[in-house]
Amino acid sequence: MTAPAASEGTRLRRVLERELREGCRDRIVIGGLDRLFIQAAEDGHLGDLPGLQALIDRLPAGGYRNLPHTAREKWLGAAIRAVPAPPPPASSAGSHGPLRRSSAPLAADDPITRLPGLRGGMAARFEKLGVRTLADAATYYPRRFNDFTDVRKIVEVTASVDPQTIVGAIESRKVQRFGRRFGGTEAVLRDATGSLRLVWFNMPFVAKALSEGQRIVVSGRVRHYRGRLQMDNPEWEEFDEAMAAGRLIPVYPATQGLGQRTIRKTVEQAVRAVAGKLIDPLPARVLEGERFETLPVALRTFHNPASAIEAERARKQLALREFLAIQVAVLMRRAEWQGGIVAPNLEFRDGLPAYVESLPFALTGSQHDALDDLLHDLLGPRPMLRLLQGDVGSGKTVIAVAAMLAAVRNGYQAALMAPTEILAEQHFRTLSAILGGEGALDGVFAPSWFARPLRVLLLTGSLTAAQKRSVRGDTANQGADIVIGTHALLEDEVEFPRLGLAVVDEQHRFGVMQRARLRQKGANPHLLVMTATPIPRTLALTVYGDLEVTTIDELPPGRKPIETSWVTPLERDFAYAGVRSRLSRGEQAFVICPLVEDSDVLDARSAEEEFQRLRAGPFADYRLALLHGRMPGKEKDAIMSQFAAAEIDLLVSTSVIEVGIDVPNATTIIIEGAERFGLSQLHQFRGRVGRSDMQSYCLLFSTDEEPGPDATMRLKAMERTNDGFELAEVDLDLRGEGEVWGRLQAGANSMLRVARLTDRDLLYRARAIATDILLGDPQLGRPEHAQLRKSAEPFLDRATEAN
Ligand code: ADP
Ligand code: MG
């Protein structure tokens, strides 16, 4: 028998003996003996105590608690006999208990299995959380804290957005339907002072996990609902004895079969053993200069804070280190991209005025500024690395075209990569229009205002093999000046001997590696990435820290702000009537169908149903069409062209349909099931209208009269503002878990373990420190920067990869 089991056995035996001595009243351990048994089983301690295990298995349903008082004494006697007696004191003279199991002191890189009582099975579960070594465990950060310095009685609970913590027993729980389709859990929690309704939206499984009479601790927001208080989507866990001490108890990200207690214990042991031995990535010079706390101090405090203020201060110390690692990584990547070979000089001063003159509109001030930034970068010799962000409809395309023309003007090729075929095709049409029209043969254009004729080709996955071959051949032999395409551009067979500029549209769908592949096709091309997702600065610096950012923050003149309204089921018919009157005037509308699941098939089916319903009902007198991601490319294209030509009044589509679609005559967008979409997506959908001087409308149809609190906040924010940057910041500040600013934020959030995107000051500080350090030691080759380099490594190719 191994030492830890013996020691656990000893502990269990002592508890059982005391229970027997004190009259079998089950008052020895908070939560009762059953709680102790469950924990022992969870921690793998019963494996070596088969006799006890068998006795526990024989307990009635509900456990020791339900064993009649008269039967307890006998059961305890048997249980005590089933646990080996503690070893005589003499035998432990040479060792001081389990911690000294091995004579070598614990090192940071040792596996956690060197900790006493941690068995192989547990180690495998820890591995799932990315925790293998003691250092990993010591830096495994709490997701939040349960504040036992401030446990409320139910009678004290008030409506508030700040989370409140309550301990109570489950009185009842059931699966409940809140919407048309999705079930959740409703439960009643009771303590000595009263009862409180708990609601978990979309989480029917919680009902199964709870049992009546179970003592749990919940923490969450409380609001008034129909005249009573209710806690929404609380975090919860079973109450355990350690919580009674009146501290902040860390709550760690957990996994199946690995409970909070085991994680807490392991982390605590690891911190004690190795926190002092971890090397701080912050160089000592910076640490002193900025008066930061040392790593061990911050770690110890963060895992075991005495107050919320202390926890937050420690978190910031650790967050700074995390941001620093990311900033070092993105800045090194930037240096690498810009180092080495010289980028071409794409001078365009002579051609620009004629191009701008040829456009059917005057550029906005913002567009002029963006052009200045870009054309300056394109002079080389350092390759441009620029992110052009601007809300949908702000007119990024004409800017990108100017840059591409600059490349062509200087004898180089330009590539424009879009995330989908529809967008690639739309860019091709836009470019055709700018270059002088439809009639161009074989992709050759000869605008009178440009120095020479140029050839523009389209390369997408839906071309035939022969067509692709021909486009590739022309590209390789410099028979193409501009190539627009999808991911197909990245394929190995595609060669761009004179690629001078790569433009990537809707960057957040591409990662660093794809960018790198595009770059490798040319000598050392300039890079322009564009996004319509308004990215808050903290987010941009985190995931696009290697890019310089230009923002177009002005819409073309004459655009009227879109009127946005949240429409509940009861107001629907009235809203449809408004849409019909606009369709009758010759305007057009989009209907976006709700997100069903992460499934093309189901999405397509629900769009089909909606299409049939609208065609048979409210829009029977109009021309309707359906568009979804599972249709063949040709068919999609045909429908889009018909819609663009106003041969279709109302287009029903799934949410996968591209963000950049430009149909100025479309003035209404209806978003069905709007409560299911995140703010960024709602805002992008809305950007499909409001592209002319006509008044446009965005109707957010919710499935329920009262969607959940988060959804309500989103819908109201949409009604309040049209400014994407404001929405992005709102989203960032209000965000509850699971609510993200598009995939981008999801990517950033999966990257950040302790820092938050709302830690703006910390991020700027980290950026400044990183810049400063790299200035003196660009490769981080100095010994005092070795640990910083190590901490940056995971981010070197991950940063934008994560999204
Ligand atoms: P996005 O930034 O979303 O890619 P586009 O480049 O597609 O926007 O531009 C949206 C629409 O606005 C297009 O029809 C474009 O021709 C038009 N546009 C662009 N700039 C201006 C401007 N300065 N004045 C008027 N219309 C403009
Ligand atoms: Mg666009």
Could you characterize the architecture of this molecule?
Helix 1 runs antiparallel to helix 4 and helix 11 crosses helix 26. The protein is α/β, with parallel strands linked by helices and 803 residues long. The strands form 4 sheets. An 8-stranded mixed beta sheet has the order 11-12-13-10-14-15-9-16, with helices on both faces. It has a 6-stranded parallel beta sheet with strand order 17-22-21-18-20-19, with helices on both faces. A 5-stranded mixed β-barrel has the order 3-4-5-7-6. The chain is globular. The longest helix is centred in the middle third of the chain and has 31 residues. It contains 27 helices and 22 strands. The protein binds adenosine-5'-diphosphate and magnesium ion. The site of magnesium ion has 3 residues, from loops.
Number of DSSP strand runs: 22
Biggest sheet record: 8 strands, mixed
Q: What small ligands are held by the chains?
A: adenosine-5'-diphosphate, magnesium ion
CA distance, first residue to last residue: 49 Å
Mean pLDDT: 85
- The portion of residues forming beta strands comes to 15-25%
Compact overview of the structure:
The chain is α/β, with parallel strands linked by helices and 803 residues long.
Topology:
Elements: H1 3-21, H2 32-42, H3 50-57, H4 69-82, H5 120-128, H6 134-138, E1 144-147, E2 151-152, E3 160-177, E4 183-191, E5 194-200, H7 205-209, E6 215-225, E7 228-238, E8 248-251, H8 260-274, H9 284-289, H10 295-303, H11 308-338, H12 352-358, H13 365-377, E9 385-390, H14 397-409, E10 413-417, H15 421-434, E11 444-445, E12 454-459, H16 465-476, E13 482-485, E14 499-505, H17 512-520, E15 526-531, H18 537-543, E16 548-552, E17 563-567, H19 572-584, E18 588-592, H20 600-616, E19 624-627, H21 633-644, E20 650-653, E21 666-671, H22 679-686, E22 697-701, H23 709-720, H24 724-734, H25 742-751, H26 760-776, H27 786-796
Parallel strand pairs: 2-3, 5-7, 9-15, 9-16, 10-13, 10-14, 12-13, 14-15, 17-22, 18-20, 18-21, 19-20, 21-22
Antiparallel strand pairs: 1-8, 3-4, 3-6, 4-5, 6-7, 11-12
Helix pairs in contact: 1-4, 3-4, 8-10, 10-11, 11-26, 11-27, 13-14
